[in-house]
Design a protein that fits this description.
Elements lengths: L3 H6 L1 H4 L13 E4 L8 H9 L4 E2 L18 E5 L7 E4 L17 E4 L7 E6 L3 E5 L1 H14 L3 H14 L6 H18 L3 H14 L5 H21 L3 H14 L7 H25 L3 H14 L6 H11 L2 E6 L14 H10 L1 E2 L1 E7 L2 E6 L2 E5 L5 E6 L13 H11 L9 H6 E8 L2 E6 L13 E2 L15 E6 L3 E6 L12 E6 L3 H10 L4 E2 L4 H7 L5 E5 L4 E7 L9 H10 L2 H9 L9 E2 L29 H21 L10 E5 L3 H15 L6 E5 L14 E6 L4 H9 L10 H11 L4 H18 L3 E6 L2 E5 L2 E2 L16 E2 L2
Parallel strand pairs: 8-19, 8-20, 24-25, 24-26
Antiparallel strand pairs: 1-6, 2-4, 3-4, 3-7, 5-6, 9-16, 10-11, 12-13, 13-15, 14-15, 17-18, 18-19, 20-28, 21-28, 22-26, 22-27, 23-27, 29-30
Length: 801
Amino acid sequence: MISISNIGRRHSQQSAMTHQPLLNGFWKSAIVGIAVLACSFPTTLHAQKNNNFGQSGAPEAEGIELLQTEAYDMIRVKDSAKGGWAKVLPLPFPGRKLPRTTPQGFLEVSILGLPGKKFKIAWKDIEAIDLWEDRLARETRERIASGDFDGAYPFMAVMMRDLPENATLAELRANYLLRDGASHYQKKEWKETLAILEELRRFDPKFQTKVVLQKINEIIDTLMESMLEADDLENAQKLLSRISGDYKPSEIPTIERWNAQFLAMAEEKQAAAIAARDKKDFRAARKLARDSLHIYPKVPGGIELVKQIDTLYPLVRVGVLQRATVIDPTQLDNWPARRAGELVYRRLFEMRGVGPEGGEFEFLFGDTEQSDDRLEFDLNFSPNGTEPPLDKIDAYQVADALAARAQRTSPLYDPAWASSVEGISVTSPREIQCLLRRPHVLPASLLQVWVDGTWISDDPKTPTGAYKPDVREENLTRYVLTQRNKDFPTQPREVVEVDQINAADSVSALLRGEVDVLDRLFPADAERLRGSKKVRVGRYPLPSVHMLIPCSDHPYLAERTFRRALIYAINREDILTGELLEGKTVEGCRVISGPFPSGTEPDDPLGYAYNESVKPRPYQPRLAKLLMEMNQRQMKSEAEKKKEEMPAMTPIRIAVPADNVAAIAVQAIKTQLELLDVFPVEIVELPPGESMPKEGTADLVYVAASIWEPSIDARRLLGPNGLAGSQDQLVGLGLRRLETARNWKEVRDRLHDLHQTSNHELPILPLWQLVDSYAYRNEVVGIGRDIVSLYQNVRRWRLAL
């Protein structure tokens, strides 16, 4: 007989023997595949004995090691057969159950770690066979009994994954959930206990049904009481709504109690709403009626009351990430100023859409006509007039404003219009004729004049739009309708802009119904919200262009080489994709190489100004550092020639508006620039509503610009009096050439040239463009599609539950 203990000692004796079947011991080797000499068995087994094979004694305790190896059964040999043990691949017993009686003959096995070799053991020499699943179940039970639920779960999880039909698994899992729930119950962790017991209920509704339902009922009572004490009505209502749908009152008796209590609370709010309505306190009535419906959605008459109040006093709450402290519908760089400006003021020409040949503009007082040679531009006033308060403005007053815009001494002076217009004449009380020096492709874009209060009064703050600012409360700004229009009976009487702490909170507020509309979404949030059934998401057709603009006399930022180094030092693709888009792919969001938008899709006509041949500079921090060293040597050489001191490298201060996207982006930019270890970076936070820092407080400012019509906005961004305040001669030449373009081909070609010049001279540091989105609840109707600005169709808004 060859026992486990003899295999190693007989290795030398067998090494010279030819292969013989080992019939006289309890192990028999069966060669699989090519012939293998018997002498190889002892060597192999001896080498593996500490792990998968033992000549005597018992294997080490397994425990957590069971999770770190492949499945195996354990065979123990009787002492009468010289003992030992072996880990073998799972045995192919029918149903994985051991034979009830000991079979005759031999059991063929494969020892773990010895692939391709088969061994035989006499059934009569086997003391015990411990199956893989039995050991997993045993380890699970022992840990459950000791209260180690975290330790028990991995063993049970392996069984759930690999042995889902195991007879003991269901009982094991149910017992685990019950005892784990009891453990959390003793710690007064009510939410965790409820979640575990409900999982047990779903897994096996028949397992100790009475006990489980009794505890669920008790815990729901406790949770509801604690939520009401904390004034957390929202989560209490959610819990009540869920359990009312998941259980019958006969199963959870407390459902009826809490439904009755919440109904009473809702009816109390409803009564207060009716009282406020009768006093014509519609703001309070609206809030109370919606609170009543939110507390108990099935409160009798709840929906009807909300509809009635909305009809009497339509009010829309708009969530905003930046409140407007300045109201100006013409600003390129200030989103909240432009947004609020659309409510309060009008413009002589307003952009209402985009087409294949630039923006589509509407004349405030009628319509326009341009001659075939593009040298005459006529403004025709509507015979029906304009609604108040602009109804008294006539052609002569508009002509005076156009003339002032062409006069250098006027505060309304615009060099682009002045260089384009030859003469202005009022040909009739309802028509103005503008003669142009040269053909212009889109003269309306030159006349986006802010129609402020001076057009109708002595006070420039007098509203000319549909709304006026009312009051600024703690976290909201109210705009009230100046005059009702019978053609728009459902137009909101009041638009309330509600400040949101951050993008995540704004989305939650929209889903909860605390606000009806969000004016601007974090890009990744927009993609997530598209799957919601409660809200709709729309995209503004024109992307915003994000950039860093130098705004100080910092000596290093004045150097083009240094600015180029900054671009190479910022991993723009990583910040855009990883931080702002959160790994999602959003069409139209991309890194850019110049100051103009590239459109939202390939061959988008809206990207006519973007030069695709100018590729964005890649992230190359080593090159960035080399360029900075080169720049420093150049500056040192210049200083020595002028016999001046070398300018000191002071911290670079980056101003950031009170905006989520800007804050996240600038923090990432700061981290990457400081990796160069050349200069410190400081972040300057701008007050809410402000887009540009005060003089001397920052060196760069993060700007998200609305470049809606590049042929006109190029000067507003890059010109000497624009945001960048560029004095660069090449940039100036590019702007002048653009303004003399006679047709769309020349406009496009010269914008492409200006793009290339900007990429070389870097008056601004281009980052990326983002496609901006808005969202609104399904109850808000009339917002429209492809709107350029949020309040474009505010007259048509209505609430419909």
